[in-house]
Amino acid sequence: MRKIYLHAVEHGYRFFSYGDASLLIPPGRDRRDSSRPKAPHPARPRKIARLRKDISLFKVLASSWALLLGILLLMVGNGIQGTLLGIRGGIEGFSTYEMSMVMSAYFLGFLGGSRLAPEMIRRVGHIRVFAALGSFISAVLILYPAWTDPLAWTIGRVLIGFCFSGVYVTAESWLNNSASNETRGQALSLYMITQMAGIVAAQGLLLTADPSGFILFIIPSVLVSISFAPILLSVSPTPPFETTKPMKLRDLIRISPTGTVGVFLIGGVFSALFGMASVFGSEAGLSVAEISAFVATIYLGGLLCQYPIGWLSDRIDRRTLILAAAAIGAAAAGAAIVVGTNYGALLTAAFVIGGMSNPLYSLLIAYTNDYLEPEDMAAASGGMLFLNGVGAIVGPLVTGWAMGVIGPGGFFLFIAVLMTSLAVFTAFRMTQRAPVPVDETGSYAPVLPSATPVAVELAQEFAIDAAQDDQDSASSGGSQTPG
After folding, report:
1. Measured between alpha carbons, how far is 31 from 162 in angstroms, rounded to an integer?
2. What percent of the chain is helix, strand and coil (3-state, nearest 5)?
3. What is the reported pLDDT for 182?
């Protein structure tokens, strides 16, 4: 027994006795050894992650509240003029096709602005571009009721689309500059919420005056002018403006056929909703209050469904989610055609269509990123924006033609056809390519279809950071050896 005891002591064991009981304690098992690391409580990492997220959110609010307030006012102004023109056009007796030209013109200008505004900023700087384009927006908004002619409105919409795009590029570049790696996701979320809240709030202001008068055109002009103050008086100087050279379209289509076809189709759906929803309401005989609630419901659905769909996208095959969202949106649009002018059913359809279509843009970008290397994600954003912009230009034109041929139901028919096409194409592609394992997919970042190159690149930077974090975690995990 003594030999066993001596042998154990030589190998680091310790002898503990209490009364008649004896115990050999192996090395590292002494409960009194305070140097031994304790296993973390299973709930502690989740609490720490939640705390860090809350701190990041407060950091974004503290550094960007004035910028977000200015963006909110800009979105209220833009939201009013889009719906107001559809109502006023009906009052002036414009045809649905004439209104489709007016609405499409905005997206033509917006696409041009997203491509030319970065060069303008490089040449004269953020402040001058922001102030000059904002002044043009205010002027055009006031001139709309003075020039009640489809051609004049079309020209005005091209100009105002160009200017809003440039203003968004400038504001988003400041937001991008103020966001760090740890706050980029929260900055994107707050920016998206601010945009949607501005459009929803704008619909309530339509009830404050007669749409056949001047007051409702003056209100957005004033709001846009006021929006400059919190932005221009609070932002810090920004670094030289930079954008990434876009990837060739054929390369992007080859890498992700579903993503590229999807963003083109969603561009058409979004422009139909943003531009032609109020035209549909006028043609269907809805009151101003009913049109206002109808348009607001579309964006409220998009806001409330963005995060549940984003949560699911990080946990299941994204193509399955794209297929399901497109199919549900198509079914809602088909149901709206059947129910006709039943207002309660129209609001339900509007909520579902908005809730499915708005998150689909972010979902398609996230899906495309799954097949890209981190260094290629930013370059791919330019091609995605271009395809989305072309779809947005075509959307109101086809919607107006359909409404002119078959009546107000053409609005929902066009949306149903595009959403069905996306669902069918996604189902076909699922038979052609194996899915990316869920644990290898990138992070979902909320972005609206109306985003400019800066916002999309901000989302891509968030995806790149997340991908690099995952790579670092995998590397550190693989380098550990069992103790």
Report:
1. 70
2. 75, 0, 20
3. 64
Q: What is the mean pLDDT of residues 65-69?
A: 81
Helix spans in 125-149 (H): 126-143
Name the helix (H) or strand (E) containing 16.
strand 14-18
DSSP label at residue 1? -
Q: What is the gyration radius of the CA atoms in the chain, in angstroms?
A: 28
- Confirm if 161 and 105 have CB atoms less than 8 A apart: yes
Q: Are 101 and 295 in contact (CB under 8 A)?
A: no
Q: What is the pLDDT of residues 273-330, one digit of tens each?
A: 998 999 999 999 999 999 999 999 999 998 898 888 888 887 888 899 999 999 999 9
CB atoms within 10 A of CB 232: 15
Confidence of residue 54 (pLDDT cuts 50, 70, 90): very low
pLDDT of residue 136: 92
* pLDDT attached to residue 370: 81
Q: What's the chain's length in residues?
A: 483
What distance in Å separates the CA atoms of residue 456 and residue 361, rounded to the nearest whole number? Answer: 11
Q: Return the bridge partners of 18, or none.
A: 21
Contact predicate 184/171, CB 8 Å: no
Counts for the chain of helices (H) and strands (E), in that order: 15, 2
As a whole number of angstroms, the distance between CA 172 and CA 111 comes to 16
Q: Residue 249: pLDDT band by 50, 70, 90 thresholds?
A: confident
Mean pLDDT of 340-347: 88
Phi, psi of 146 (to 5 degrees): -80, -30
Confirm if 291 and 412 have CB atoms less than 8 A apart: no
What residues have CB less than 8 Å from 349, skipping those under 6 apart? 332, 333, 335, 336, 339, 412
71's tokens: 């963006």
Kindly report the CA angle at 197 between 192 and 198, in degrees rounded to 5? Answer: 100
Read off the tokens for 69: 């307030």
Three-class SS state of 93: coil
Share of the chain above pLDDT 70, in %: 72
